[in-house]
């Protein structure tokens, strides 16, 4: 903007010189007119650049406005997803508790059934061992496999009656 102000000052100075009845008017009018035309052309060029810069500024402002709106939508989506994630986490916790309750109930039913089976085998005169292999339980699968085997072992120990633990080191 400083160069435009300087050009404007030069134009005013040239206008004063042209209007001044002093000796310069008579000696250099063509030079002054040429210089004035050059300054006007330069000024018009600068005004064109300013117009382009203002248009670019408006484009940037529109882009900033668009990005701000997009950012707001993104923030709203993040809040919505956080709320959904929290709700899903609560539902997951609830389902895990329900599954645990169901497994506990099934474990109790399985214990009763196993006790009945072992009692019937003994009444029938069975004297052999009872081997229970893991990895086939339809309820205690995947990450619950070891939990199922521990439950089975505890159940078998309780069915055996007077359980005596192995001495340490064996």
Explain this structure to me?
There is one protein chain. Helix 1 (2-19) packs antiparallel against helix 3 (29-123) and helix 3 runs parallel beside helix 4. The mean pLDDT is 81. This protein has a domain at 2-94. It is an all-alpha fold and 170 residues long. It contains four helices and no strands. The two termini are 94 Å apart. The chain has helices spanning 2-19, 23-27, 29-123, 145-160.
What's this, in brief?
The protein has 170 residues and is an all-alpha fold.
Helix content: over 70%
Question: What is the helix/strand order?
Answer: HHHH
Low-confidence runs of at least 5 consecutive residues: none
Rounded to the nearest angstrom, the radius of gyration is 47 Å
Gross geometry:
rod-shaped
Strand content: under 5%
* Strand runs, count: 0
Give the tags.
rod-shaped, mainly alpha, 170 residues, 79% helix
Topology:
Blueprint: H1 2-19, H2 23-27, H3 29-123, H4 145-160
